[in-house]
Amino acid sequence: MPSDSARALDPEYPNLRPDVLDGYRGAPPGVAAEIIGGELYLLSRPAPRNQSAAAILSALLHPPFRWGRGGPGGWIVLPEPELSLGDLPDLAEPDLAGWHRDRLPTMPEDAAIRVVPDWVCEVLSSSTRRHDRFTKMPMYLSHGVGHAWLLDATAKTLEVFRRTADGWLLALSAAGDATVRAEPFEAIEIELRVLWEW
């Protein structure tokens, strides 16, 4: 019979506990599962308000930053990518993530992307706000993500953070109908009001 220690070595994720992996892989429909710092988190899927804000933001960024139409191009932006970061690893799914094309030059074959994003955006909800701020933001910082946005479609706010040697620096805070130039996408203006529309 195999020993417990032999059972613990999963071929894909040998550093993660079997019970954590079982919970991650067996998450019920309508639940998002993440593993951060070796711990399992089960979260509600985004509500339509949050899905809409993320979809609109993605649609605004694609022409200028992916295709270079009215902007510099050179980015890949994906909705809800599965990330596998670090050796443990941390398995997370931001609402949006972006990479400079030269850091992700070819389409990954695996479902999980192992290249650290240059930018992430989390759309906050009542069920994920604490997790996004106090679990995922430190994790993104530790892996070297360059910029992180926290978008709150209910409160109609945007917070833009830049990674520094001392931690996250709040580079921009805006609300309501403001028009902003937000790092790292400051080449274009974004009217926040369109993010809140249905």
Give a topology summary.
Layout: H1 4-7, H2 18-25, E1 31-36, E2 39-44, H3 48-66, E3 75-79, E4 82-85, E5 90-92, E6 96-100, E7 112-113, E8 119-124, H4 129-143, E9 147-152, E10 157-164, E11 167-175, E12 179-180, E13 190-191, H5 193-196
Parallel strand pairs: 4-7, 8-9
Antiparallel strand pairs: 1-2, 3-6, 4-5, 6-8, 9-10, 10-11, 12-13
Please tag this protein with its features.
tt1808, chain A; 5 helices; 25% helix; 32% strand
Counted up, domains total: 1
CATH-defined fold name: tt1808, chain A
Percent strand equals: 25-35%
Count of helical segments? 5
**Which architecture would the CATH scheme give at its second level?**
Alpha-Beta Complex
- Would you state the CATH class? Alpha Beta
Tell the overall outline: globular
Give the averaged pLDDT, no decimals.
Answer: 95
What is the percent of helical residues?
Answer: 25-40%
- What about the largest sheet? 6 strands, mixed
Q: Compute the number of strand runs.
A: 13
Architecture overview:
The protein is an alpha+beta fold. The chain has one domain: Alpha-Beta Complex (tt1808, chain A), CATH 3.90.1570.10. It is built from 5 helices and 13 strands. The protein has helices at 4-7, 18-25, 48-66, 129-143, 193-196; strands at 31-36, 39-44, 75-79, 82-85, 90-92, 96-100, 112-113, 119-124, 147-152, 157-164, 167-175, 179-180, 190-191. Strands 3-6-8-9-10-11 form a 6-stranded mixed beta sheet, sandwiched between helices. It has a 3-stranded mixed beta sheet with strand order 5-4-7, covered by helices on one side. Strand 9 and strand 10 form a beta hairpin. The chain is globular and about 50 Å long.
